[in-house]
Amino acid sequence: MKIFNTLTMHKEEFVPIEPGKVRMYVCGPTVYNLIHIGNARPMIVFDAVRRYLEHKGYEVNFVSNFTDVDDKIIKASVEEGIPAAAVSERYIAECKKDMAAMNVRPATTHPQATKEIGGMIRMILDLIKKGHAYEVNGTVYFRTRSFAGYGKLSGKNLDDLRSGFRDLKVSGEDEKEDPLDFVLWKPKKEGEPAWPSPWGEGRPGWHIECSVMSKKYLGETIDIHAGGEDLIFPHHENEIAQSESCSGKIFARYWMHNGFLNIDNRKMSKSLGNFFTVRDILSKYDAQVLRLFMLSSHYRSPLNFSAELMTSAANALERIRRAASRLRDIAAKGKGGAADPQLLSEIAAFTGRFDEKMDDDVNTADAISVIFDLVRFANTQVLDDAPAALAKAALDELVELADVLGLVVLTEEEEADEEIDALIAERQAARKAKDFARADEIRDELKARGIELMDTKEGVKWKRI
Ligand code: AMP
Ligand code: ZN
Fold first, then answer.
1. Distance from the alpha carbon of residue 63 to the mean position of ligand 2, in angstroms
2. pLDDT band at 414 (very low <50, low <70, confident <90, very high)
3. Is there a single domain that holds both residue 451 and residue 383?
4. I need a surface site. Which of 53, 147, 189, 438 has the fewest CB within 10 A?
5. What is the pLDDT averaged over residues 56-66?
């Protein structure tokens, strides 16, 4: 599998540190409001990356944080007259609801910055000890020039950066040794959340959070670090500087960044009145439509959100679902007979074609085209009177490929029906093998679920009672 690595600006073969295992960190949202559809893009895209890596057999340790200490959270807490922790707890819960609605799987671990303060203090102490950081009046700064690799991710040159800063000497920050230095720890201001530290009460800077949480849950060197492209500089550049100055090791081997989501070809902003939360969109569209829309273009390209594109995603999803539903009905009819081996092998070959697209830097747009080729194949080659085995094979293939992208193509009821059909088939097989105990057990289980079986001339039928 090839991944475009922002660090080298090339597509590179993905080779994990440990065979069969992937350590992946995705910068999560700052929780001061409901998440917007721009935040949903990295969630959906990197969830698809994770699912694809799992589909290829990797065990993925997927860590994504919540930034729950930040100026915007403090501002919201002052406006609402409630503690900052109450603001962040509320929006973490809301964010998890949106993630579940979008079928974004929960991370292996979702660390929260406020619960990792001890680790941050330890890393800052270590940086001071190693000469990479210094304290002035309760603020600790990272000594940017002390890290020789600074700028390697964003391609920025320290001298260019420095001349850009010359006019920007903000008051209160002239205590820095160098305008390029950035904050690791800042002193408490009245009314703000604060923690005790060797430099007095205060709170951590944003960048140190991710360095600490990534190290704690994934180790000093990880495979993939990801986020939106706005994070390349300064956030990810600063994470590298902190982590590598501490450990002397490579922080992350592959850096993946998603492009931005715009609305009607303009930057999403509250003042332009084109700002949508995920909640706004889910009140108008099925969350699966949003997901298909997000994955219909390459993750590194800018993506334009418009009602027109959402309508075409809705139609596309409907086409996949209609095909899945039809295959399910054919399978449920239970027509016996062997499936044509040629058709079965053509069905199985779709996985290879899908994987080939995904192996090319997660080309979900082309992978979706392969799903549509499968839909077309099913609609033309699996006829209404086809053997159940053929319909089932085509359906399983469709469900599996869609699931790699987190797309659900059968409704919950249809999925339940499928499970019942499978149990009935198992019961028939048990009876044939004279395993009557198992056959009775299945009948009882179905009965408990309110399913009555009927032996008919065309085979076993069932109904809900
Ligand atoms: P934030 O809460 O601003 O730190 O953002 C959380 C994640 O959403 C980061 O990975 C950002 O890069 C990403 N993000 C924010 N806005 C957009 C957008 N309009 N399009 C794509 N990604 C975005
Ligand atoms: Zn981060």
1. 11
2. confident
3. no
4. 189
5. 98
Query: Which residue minimizes the CA distance to atom 1 of ligand 1?
Result: 29
At which of 382, 409, 436 does a domain end? 409
Same domain, 336 and 441: no
Beta bridge partners of 12: 3
Give the least confident one: 114-128, 188-202, 243-257, 261-275. Answer: 261-275
Query: What pLDDT shows up at residue 153?
Result: 98
Asked if 430 contacts 438 with a C-beta cutoff of 8 angstroms, the reply is: yes
For 190, the token pair is 């009245």
CA triple 180-181-187, angle to 5 deg: 140
Does residue 143 sit in the same domain as residue 70?
A: yes
User: Do 195 and 238 sit in the same domain of this protein?
Assistant: yes
Helix (H, G, I), strand (E, B) or coil at 135: strand
> Which of 39, 88, 94 should be mutated for ligand 1, with most atoms under 8 A from CB?
39
Cα separations (Å) of 95 from 65, 102, 230, 368, 384?
A: 12, 11, 20, 27, 43
Range of the domain at 441: 416-464
CA of 39 to the centre of ligand 1 (A): 4
* Residue 298, in any domain of the structure: no
Q: Is the pLDDT of residue 220 over 80?
A: yes
Count of domains observed in the chain:
3
Residue 339 has pLDDT above 60, yes or no: yes
Amino acid letter at 253? R
- Regarding whether 180 and 114 lie in a shared domain, the answer is yes
Measured by CA distance, the residue closest to atom 8 of ligand 1 is 39
67: left (phi over 0), alpha (psi -120 to 50) or beta: beta
Ligand 1: list residues with CB < 6 Å. 27, 29-30, 38-39, 41-42, 227-228, 230-231, 258, 260-261, 268
Ligand minimally distant from the alpha carbon of residue 27: 2
Q: How confident is the model at residue 69 (pLDDT cuts 50, 70, 90)?
A: very high
pLDDT higher than threshold 70 for residue 353: yes
CATH number reported for the structural domain that contains residue 396 in this entry: 1.20.120.640
Residues 13 and 129 occupy one common structural domain: yes
Q: What is the pLDDT of residue 417?
A: 85
Residue 455: pLDDT over 90: no
438 and 325 share one domain:
no
Q: One-letter amino acid identity for 375?
A: V
